[in-house]
Amino acid sequence: MALGLGQLFYVLLFVINGIAVLSEDRFLARIGWSVQADPSGFGGDSQSVKFKIINLISAVRTLMRIPLIAINIVVIVYELILG
Amino acid sequence: MGMQFAGNAMAQGTAYMERNFNQWINMPALRHYFNVNNVYVVNKLKLLLFPWKHSPWTRSITRTETGQMGGYKPPREDINSPDLYIPVMAIVTYVLVCGLVTGQKGSFHPNNLYASGSTAVAIVFFEILFTRLGCYFMNIPFEASIMDLVAYYSYKFVGIIFTDLTKLMSGPGWHSWVIFVYTGLSIGFFLLRSMRYVILPEASAGPSTLNPQRKRRMWFLLVIAGLQLVYMFFLIN
C-alpha cells in the first residue's frame, strides 16, 4: 500500500473539499442539518454529537473556503508540472 | 586575545540559534520526555509485551513546595509516564527492519526506506487526528499534550518490530501470526489502560454511573485500542 504522508495529505484535502462544497440551503436544510436548528436541546448533554457535527461542518465551510482555494491551486499546479 | 574573540563569537552564535530555535520547538517539554534511564527502558519494554499483570496505571504527579500540583513526574521516576525515547528508537528500528526484510527478498531500494518511514509517521499522525476529532465530538476535555499521544501511539512499533524479527528469523507461518496477534493484543491492552485516564477523565469509582455519554466514551476507547491491531497488520510486511 502506497500510504505515506503525501497520500494522507491528499486524503485529508479531498475530505475537507467534500465538506466545503456542501450547500447550506439545497442539501443541509433538506436533511435537517442546518445550523440554526434545534433550540429545544437534547436531554442530558448540553451539546450532543449531532450538534457538534453540524457546527463543525459549518465552521469548515466558513473558515476554510478561501485557504482551500489557495491550497487547491498549489496542488493542481504541482500535479500539472510533475505529472 | 584572539581566543577570547573566538569564544565570544561562539557564545553569541549559540545564543542567536537558541533564541530562534526555541520559538519552534519547545525544548524543556521535549527534555522531560527524553529523561529516561536504563531501568525505565527495560521495564517499559517488558510492560509493553506483557501488560496483563501490572497494577497501578496512574501517573505520578510532582508537587511543588506549597503543595500545589506541578507537572507529571519524569519517566525516570515513574514507569507509567510516556516517554519519547522508546518511540523514536522504535520508529527508526522499524524503518531499518523494513529495509532488512526487503533486502532479504532481494528487492531493496533506498526509496523503500523513505516509503516505510513515511507510512509510519502518517499512521501516527492519522491516529492523533482521529483521537482529537473523537474528543471534540464527545465533549472530552483534552488535557494531555500532543507529545503524549505521539508517544502512546508509537509504542506499537515495538510490537511490530518483535513480530517482524520473528518472521525474519523463522520464516512466515502460523507461529508468526500467533506472535502478531499476541503483540497486537498486548499493545491494545496497554493502550486501553494508559489512555483510560486521558479519555475518561472523571475518577471512576466503578460502573455505577453508566449514562450514555460514558458508554460512548468507553466504546471510543475500545475502538482506539482495537484499531491498533488493524494498523499493525498494515505495518507488518
Automatic annotation (TrEMBL), chain A:
The keyword Membrane applies. It comes from the Eukaryota. The keyword Transferase does not apply. The chain crosses the membrane at residues 6-23, 62-81. Keywords: Membrane, Protein transport, Transmembrane, Transmembrane helix, Transport. GO terms for cellular component: COPII-coated ER to Golgi transport vesicle; endoplasmic reticulum membrane; Golgi membrane. PANTHER family: IMMEDIATE EARLY RESPONSE 3-INTERACTING PROTEIN 1. This is Yos1-like protein. It comes from Hesseltinella vesiculosa.
UniProtKB/TrEMBL annotation, chain B:
It comes from the Eukaryota. The keyword Ribosomal protein does not apply. GO terms for cellular component: COPII-coated ER to Golgi transport vesicle; endoplasmic reticulum membrane; endoplasmic reticulum-Golgi intermediate compartment; Golgi membrane. The keyword Transmembrane applies. Its main location: endoplasmic reticulum. InterPro entries: Yif1_fam. It is found in: Endoplasmic reticulum membrane; Golgi apparatus membrane. Keywords: Endoplasmic reticulum, Golgi apparatus, Membrane, Protein transport, Transmembrane, Transmembrane helix, Transport. It is a multi-pass membrane protein. The chain crosses the membrane at residues 84-102, 114-137, 149-168, 174-192, 218-236. Belongs to the YIF1 family. This is Protein YIF1. It comes from Hesseltinella vesiculosa.
